[in-house]
Amino acid sequence: MNNPQLSTTVIDPLLLLGCSILLVAVSLTALLVAAFPAIQDVSRAARSAEKLFDKLDRELPPTLEAIRLAGLELGDLSDEMSQGVQSAAAVAQQVDLSLAVVKKQAGNVQTNSRSVWVGVKAAWGSWRG
Description:
Elements: H1 4-128
């Protein structure tokens, strides 16, 4: 009543299932062993990033405040420069007006000196004549 074919057919699937489970376990173990250095690198990178963020948290606010103050100072300097340029433009206009007045007065002096010279020549001519 014992059939040898029946017992080998039942054992074969169980043997295949056991081998499959063993291969999956070995594969998972190999995967974990291979991934362990990568996990360590990720852990080191996370610690390094945490240190960097702490340093940025300490140093960034004073730096941003210094940049803001520098911007305000630049704005003040810009205003002062604009006022200086406007003052220089006003002085240049006054100099231009003064030069125009001097030029006009020089023309008047030249005209007056010609008139005086003509008068002196006429007087000299009439006195000698």
